[in-house]
Automatic annotation (TrEMBL):
Basic and acidic residues biased stretches: 171-184
Top-level taxonomic group: Bacteria
Record organism: Dactylosporangium fulvum
Domain M23ase beta-sheet core: residue ranges: 83-182
CDD domains: M23_peptidase (cd12797)
Membrane is among the record's keywords: yes
InterPro entries registered for this protein in UniProt: Cell_wall_metabolism_enzyme (IPR050570), Dup_hybrid_motif (IPR011055), M23ase_b-sheet_dom (IPR016047)
Keyword terms of this UniProt record: Membrane, Signal, Transmembrane, Transmembrane helix
Region spans: Disordered: 156-212
Protein name: M23 family metallopeptidase
Transmembrane segments: 17-41
Amino acid sequence: MIGTVTTKQPARTRTRVVGAVVGLGVVAAVIAAAVVIVPLLRPPGPRPAFQLPVPCGETWQLGTYPGHDDFDVDLFPTVGQAWGRPVLASYAGAVTAAGVNGSVGGRTPEDPDGPRGRGGGYWVEIDHGGRWETQYLHLLEPPMVRKGQRVEQGDQLGKVGSTGNSGAPHLHYEQRRGREKVETYFDGSPSGITHDDAEYTVTRKSNNCPPA
Protein backbone atom coordinates (compact mmCIF):
# COMPACT_ATOMS: atom_id res chain seq x y z
CA MET A 1 0.00 0.00 0.00
CA ILE A 2 1.34 3.40 -0.97
CA GLY A 3 1.63 5.80 1.98
CA THR A 4 -0.14 9.15 2.07
CA VAL A 5 1.87 11.97 0.44
CA THR A 6 1.83 15.34 2.23
CA THR A 7 2.97 18.75 0.99
CA LYS A 8 2.72 20.45 4.34
CA GLN A 9 5.95 22.22 5.29
CA PRO A 10 7.58 21.45 8.60
CA ALA A 11 6.91 24.09 11.29
CA ARG A 12 10.62 24.98 11.41
CA THR A 13 10.71 25.73 7.66
CA ARG A 14 7.60 27.91 7.87
CA THR A 15 9.12 29.86 10.77
CA ARG A 16 12.28 30.49 8.77
CA VAL A 17 10.30 31.73 5.76
CA VAL A 18 8.19 34.05 7.89
CA GLY A 19 11.29 35.35 9.65
CA ALA A 20 13.01 36.04 6.34
CA VAL A 21 9.97 37.95 5.01
CA VAL A 22 9.73 40.01 8.21
CA GLY A 23 13.45 40.72 8.06
CA LEU A 24 13.22 41.95 4.48
CA GLY A 25 10.30 44.16 5.46
CA VAL A 26 12.31 45.71 8.28
CA VAL A 27 15.28 46.33 5.97
CA ALA A 28 13.00 47.96 3.38
CA ALA A 29 11.44 50.19 6.07
CA VAL A 30 14.87 51.26 7.32
CA ILE A 31 16.02 52.10 3.80
CA ALA A 32 12.84 54.09 3.12
CA ALA A 33 13.25 56.02 6.37
CA ALA A 34 16.89 56.75 5.55
CA VAL A 35 15.93 58.14 2.14
CA VAL A 36 13.66 60.66 3.90
CA ILE A 37 15.68 61.41 7.04
CA VAL A 38 19.28 61.51 5.83
CA PRO A 39 18.78 64.50 3.48
CA LEU A 40 17.17 66.40 6.38
CA LEU A 41 20.26 65.81 8.52
CA ARG A 42 22.65 67.23 5.96
CA PRO A 43 23.70 70.85 6.54
CA PRO A 44 22.15 73.40 4.15
CA GLY A 45 24.18 74.36 1.12
CA PRO A 46 25.32 77.86 0.18
CA ARG A 47 22.63 80.53 -0.11
CA PRO A 48 21.36 80.74 -3.71
CA ALA A 49 21.68 84.08 -5.50
CA PHE A 50 18.06 85.05 -4.85
CA GLN A 51 16.58 88.03 -6.66
CA LEU A 52 13.43 90.01 -5.93
CA PRO A 53 10.41 88.00 -7.15
CA VAL A 54 9.27 90.86 -9.41
CA PRO A 55 10.23 92.08 -12.90
CA CYS A 56 13.63 93.54 -13.72
CA GLY A 57 14.11 97.23 -12.94
CA GLU A 58 10.96 97.66 -10.82
CA THR A 59 11.25 99.23 -7.36
CA TRP A 60 9.17 97.68 -4.58
CA GLN A 61 8.63 98.35 -0.91
CA LEU A 62 9.51 95.49 1.43
CA GLY A 63 7.95 95.60 4.88
CA THR A 64 6.78 93.92 8.02
CA TYR A 65 4.66 94.84 11.05
CA PRO A 66 4.05 93.64 14.62
CA GLY A 67 2.55 90.16 14.65
CA HIS A 68 3.58 89.40 11.06
CA ASP A 69 6.14 86.75 12.16
CA ASP A 70 9.91 87.04 12.07
CA PHE A 71 11.54 87.17 8.61
CA ASP A 72 8.21 87.38 6.70
CA VAL A 73 8.27 90.00 3.95
CA ASP A 74 5.32 91.78 2.32
CA LEU A 75 6.02 93.38 -1.05
CA PHE A 76 4.15 96.35 -2.55
CA PRO A 77 5.02 98.21 -5.78
CA THR A 78 6.08 101.81 -5.30
CA VAL A 79 4.43 102.81 -8.59
CA GLY A 80 1.06 101.64 -9.90
CA GLN A 81 -1.48 99.14 -8.61
CA ALA A 82 -0.46 95.87 -7.03
CA TRP A 83 -3.34 93.80 -8.44
CA GLY A 84 -2.22 91.43 -11.16
CA ARG A 85 1.48 92.31 -11.18
CA PRO A 86 3.74 89.41 -12.23
CA VAL A 87 5.27 87.24 -9.49
CA LEU A 88 8.54 85.67 -10.61
CA ALA A 89 10.74 82.86 -9.32
CA SER A 90 13.59 84.26 -7.21
CA TYR A 91 15.89 81.46 -8.32
CA ALA A 92 15.77 78.24 -10.31
CA GLY A 93 14.30 75.14 -8.70
CA ALA A 94 11.50 72.58 -8.58
CA VAL A 95 7.93 73.48 -7.62
CA THR A 96 6.96 71.53 -4.49
CA ALA A 97 3.54 73.15 -3.93
CA ALA A 98 1.18 75.03 -6.22
CA GLY A 99 -2.44 75.48 -5.25
CA VAL A 100 -4.38 76.69 -2.22
CA ASN A 101 -2.96 77.21 1.26
CA GLY A 102 -5.94 77.50 3.63
CA SER A 103 -8.81 79.02 1.64
CA VAL A 104 -9.09 81.63 -1.11
CA GLY A 105 -11.76 84.01 0.21
CA GLY A 106 -13.45 86.58 -1.99
CA ARG A 107 -11.12 89.57 -2.40
CA THR A 108 -10.68 90.54 -6.06
CA PRO A 109 -9.87 93.71 -8.02
CA GLU A 110 -13.63 94.09 -8.55
CA ASP A 111 -14.39 93.53 -4.85
CA PRO A 112 -11.24 94.45 -2.88
CA ASP A 113 -13.14 94.47 0.43
CA GLY A 114 -14.70 91.04 -0.07
CA PRO A 115 -14.48 88.31 2.56
CA ARG A 116 -11.04 87.21 3.68
CA GLY A 117 -9.93 83.64 3.30
CA ARG A 118 -7.56 81.66 5.52
CA GLY A 119 -3.82 81.14 5.33
CA GLY A 120 -1.90 82.01 2.19
CA GLY A 121 -4.63 81.56 -0.41
CA TYR A 122 -3.21 80.74 -3.83
CA TRP A 123 0.48 80.01 -3.32
CA VAL A 124 3.67 78.46 -4.70
CA GLU A 125 6.64 76.84 -2.96
CA ILE A 126 9.95 76.14 -4.72
CA ASP A 127 12.80 73.84 -3.68
CA HIS A 128 16.09 75.36 -4.83
CA GLY A 129 18.31 72.51 -3.68
CA GLY A 130 20.74 72.51 -0.78
CA ARG A 131 17.71 72.61 1.58
CA TRP A 132 16.74 76.12 0.45
CA GLU A 133 13.11 77.02 -0.33
CA THR A 134 11.04 80.08 -1.20
CA GLN A 135 7.32 80.68 -0.75
CA TYR A 136 4.98 83.07 -2.59
CA LEU A 137 1.51 83.68 -1.06
CA HIS A 138 -1.79 85.55 -1.66
CA LEU A 139 -1.66 85.16 -5.45
CA LEU A 140 -4.62 86.53 -7.41
CA GLU A 141 -5.43 83.36 -9.35
CA PRO A 142 -4.43 79.69 -9.43
CA PRO A 143 -0.65 79.44 -9.95
CA MET A 144 0.72 79.38 -13.47
CA VAL A 145 3.01 76.46 -12.56
CA ARG A 146 2.33 72.97 -11.24
CA LYS A 147 3.87 70.74 -8.60
CA GLY A 148 6.95 68.93 -9.90
CA GLN A 149 7.63 71.49 -12.62
CA ARG A 150 11.14 72.86 -13.09
CA VAL A 151 11.34 76.66 -13.18
CA GLU A 152 14.17 79.03 -13.96
CA GLN A 153 14.92 82.32 -12.26
CA GLY A 154 12.52 84.93 -13.61
CA ASP A 155 9.82 82.48 -14.74
CA GLN A 156 6.35 83.76 -13.89
CA LEU A 157 4.62 81.84 -11.10
CA GLY A 158 1.41 83.86 -10.85
CA LYS A 159 0.02 87.34 -10.19
CA VAL A 160 -0.14 89.56 -7.12
CA GLY A 161 -3.50 89.29 -5.37
CA SER A 162 -5.17 89.24 -1.97
CA THR A 163 -6.38 85.67 -1.49
CA GLY A 164 -6.20 83.94 1.86
CA ASN A 165 -5.85 85.98 5.05
CA SER A 166 -4.87 89.22 3.34
CA GLY A 167 -5.99 92.78 3.96
CA ALA A 168 -4.79 94.29 0.67
CA PRO A 169 -3.18 93.13 -2.58
CA HIS A 170 0.48 92.30 -2.00
CA LEU A 171 2.98 89.47 -2.24
CA HIS A 172 3.91 87.66 0.97
CA TYR A 173 7.34 86.13 0.47
CA GLU A 174 9.62 83.88 2.53
CA GLN A 175 13.07 82.32 2.21
CA ARG A 176 13.69 79.11 4.17
CA ARG A 177 16.89 77.25 5.02
CA GLY A 178 16.47 73.73 6.32
CA ARG A 179 12.71 74.33 6.70
CA GLU A 180 13.30 77.34 8.97
CA LYS A 181 12.59 80.91 7.90
CA VAL A 182 15.64 83.17 7.60
CA GLU A 183 16.33 86.77 6.68
CA THR A 184 15.66 87.38 3.00
CA TYR A 185 18.59 88.32 0.77
CA PHE A 186 18.16 89.85 -2.66
CA ASP A 187 20.98 90.29 -5.17
CA GLY A 188 23.41 89.33 -2.41
CA SER A 189 22.23 91.94 0.10
CA PRO A 190 20.18 91.37 3.30
CA SER A 191 16.73 92.93 3.45
CA GLY A 192 17.08 93.95 7.09
CA ILE A 193 13.73 92.33 7.94
CA THR A 194 14.49 90.00 10.83
CA HIS A 195 11.89 90.64 13.57
CA ASP A 196 8.24 91.61 13.73
CA ASP A 197 8.45 93.64 16.94
CA ALA A 198 8.08 96.92 15.04
CA GLU A 199 6.94 98.22 11.67
CA TYR A 200 9.79 98.34 9.18
CA THR A 201 9.98 99.17 5.48
CA VAL A 202 12.74 99.41 2.92
CA THR A 203 12.77 99.82 -0.87
CA ARG A 204 14.70 97.63 -3.29
CA LYS A 205 15.13 97.63 -7.06
CA SER A 206 14.75 94.28 -8.78
CA ASN A 207 17.69 92.74 -10.59
CA ASN A 208 15.62 89.71 -11.61
CA CYS A 209 16.57 90.26 -15.23
CA PRO A 210 16.81 87.97 -18.27
CA PRO A 211 20.32 86.70 -19.08
CA ALA A 212 22.35 89.18 -21.10
